[in-house]
């Protein structure tokens, strides 16, 4: 993907200093950029279903793993964080419903919404749990070894990448 085709450029300011989580956030950004490329090439209609499926499935998998990390680390603000995750998934569901059932174009609304949400969520909410885990002395390195394998199993069971390849 060339720089002209990047809608949301990843930068170190989005890092939560947990490589596994950063890698997953970067993949979410890549999915968003794929939608942008499809829309800019006037292929949005053809690509939107696959991109929506990949986005929802990948996001659910990421959230489950992120919530497990916070639970294991006994993060005090787990419940409000989980509520943020549920809210995003509901908003994605609303967008998908608008597209599928009402046959309305959602590309620009989705691009704008997701870019804003990702930036605000990563920089506002995710950095808080990252800092709290580091301050508490939670062993992120040990968790990352376990999480990498677990994420692969979760991803394999959802087969999101098959949809992604066709989008």
From TrEMBL:
> Which controlled-vocabulary keywords does the entry list?
Iron, Metal-binding, Oxygen transport, Transport
InterPro entries named in the record: Haemerythrin_Fe_BS (IPR016131), Hemerythrin (IPR050669), Hemerythrin-like (IPR012312), Hemerythrin-like_sf (IPR035938), Hemerythrin_metal-bd (IPR012827)
Q: What PROSITE patterns does the annotation carry?
A: HEMERYTHRINS (PS00550)
Q: Which GO terms describe its molecular function?
A: metal ion binding; oxygen carrier activity
Which is one Pfam family of this protein? Hemerythrin
Coiled-coil blocks: none
Q: Does the keyword Lyase apply?
A: no
Please verify whether the record's keywords include Amino-acid biosynthesis: no
Q: Where do the Hemerythrin-like domain residues begin and end?
A: 18-130
Query: What is stated as this protein's family in its record?
Result: Belongs to the hemerythrin family.
Which PANTHER family does the entry link to?
A: BACTERIOHEMERYTHRIN (PTHR37164)
Q: What is this protein called?
A: Hemerythrin-like metal-binding protein
Species: Sideroxydans lithotrophicus (strain ES-1)
């Amino acid at each position: 993907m060339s720089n002209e085709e990047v809608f949301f450029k990843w930068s170190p300011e989005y890092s939560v200093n947990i490589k596994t989580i950063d890698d997953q956030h970067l993949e979410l950004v890549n999915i968003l950029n794929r939608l942008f490329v499809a829309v800019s090439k006037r292929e949005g209609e053809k690509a939107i279903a696959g991109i929506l499926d990949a986005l929802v499935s990948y996001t659910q998998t990421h959230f489950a793993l992120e919530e497990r990390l916070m639970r294991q680390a006994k993060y005090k603000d787990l419940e409000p964080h989980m509520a943020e995750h549920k809210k995003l998934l509901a908003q994605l569901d609303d967008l998908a419903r608008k597209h599928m059932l009402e046959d309305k174009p959602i590309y620009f609304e989705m691009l704008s919404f997701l870019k804003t949400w990702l930036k605000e969520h990563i920089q506002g909410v995710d950095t808080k749990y990252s800092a709290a885990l580091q301050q508490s002395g939670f062993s992120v390195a040990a968790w990352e070894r376990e999480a990498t394998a677990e994420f692969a199993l979760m991803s394999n069971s959802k087969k999101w990448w098959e949809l992604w390849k066709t989008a």
